[in-house]
3-oxoacyl-[acyl-carrier-protein] reductase (Virgibacillus xinjiangensis), 246 residues
Amino acid sequence: MLDGKNALVTGASRGIGRTIALELASKGANVAINYAGNEEKAKEVAREVEGLGGKAVTIRADVADESEVKEMIKQVTKEFGSLDILINNAGITRDNLLMRMKEDEFDQVINTNLKGVFVCTKAVTRQMMKQKAGKIVNVASVVGVSGNPGQANYAAAKAGVIGFTKTTAKELASRNILVNAVAPGFITTDMTDSLTEDQKQEMLAMIPLNRLGTPESVANVVRFLVSEEADYITGQTIHIDGGMVM
Ligand code: NAD
C-alpha cells in the first residue's frame, strides 16, 4: 500500500511516533526516524523497521531548529532519493495552571509543538514541490479543540497546529501536497500507565466509548491519511478520541 514511499516521522524513538513509524513500514514504506536525544531507542526502532523489510535511517534534530531540520531533510532525501510523507509527531508537555505557568514553560511548548511543525513543514515542502506530490500529517490533540485546565501552552500550540494545517492545505493543494491533522484524545502511554485507578475512572467518564485509545488507533488513521485511498482529503483534523469531543 505504501510500497517504495519514503517517510519521515519526527519524535519517532518512542510512543505514538514509534508506532506510526512501524505501521508505515509494515505497509512497505522506508522510514527516517527523527529523535531529539535517545539515539539507542531510535536505533532500536530503525532495526524494527528493517525487520519489516523497509529501509531506515535515524537522524537527530531538534524540530524547532531550522538549520538542524534543513540538514535532516537534506540527509533523508540523499539517503532515500525522495521524501513523500512527513509526520509531524514530536511534542512535549509542560503543564501548569495559568497563574503558575512560567514564561519558559509556555515558550518551550510553543517552540516544539507549533514552531516545530512550521519549520519541518517548510523544509519538507521545498522537496515535495520539486516532486509535485506529498502527504503531511500533523499530530494535534483534542486539547487544541476543547482546552484543558493546566495546559494553556499545550492547547494554544495544538489549536495553532489545526489552523496551520488548514492554511497549508489551502496553500499547497495546487502543488498536490495534501496536509491533514489527527487529534488524539487519551492514548495509553507510559504516562497513562502511572495514573491511579481513580484518575483512570475520571478519564473514562469523559469518553463515550469508555476506553482509552492506543498508539495503534492513531497510527492506523495516519497510515490511511498518507495512503492513496485518502487522495481526496486535505485540510481535515480527524479526532481519535472515542467520541470525547464532538
Ligand atoms: P512521547 O513523549 O512518548 O513522544 C514524543 C516524542 O517527541 C519523544 O520521542 C521526544 O523525544 C520527541 N521530541 C520532543 N521534543 C522534540 C524536539 N524538539 N525535536 C525532536 N523530537 C522531540 O509522547 P506521545 O504520547 O507519543 O506523543 C506524540 C504526539 O502525540 C505529541 O505531539 C503529543 O502532543 C500528541 N498527543 C499525545 C496524546 C497522548 O495521550 N499520548 C494525546 C494527544 C496528542
About this structure: Strands lie at 6-9, 30-35, 56-60, 85-88, 134-139, 177-184, 237-240. The chain has one domain: 6-240. The pocket of nicotinamide-adenine-dinucleotide is lined by residues 10-11, 13-17, 34-36, 62-64, 89-92, 112, 116, 139, 141, 184, 186-187, 189 (CB under 6 Å).
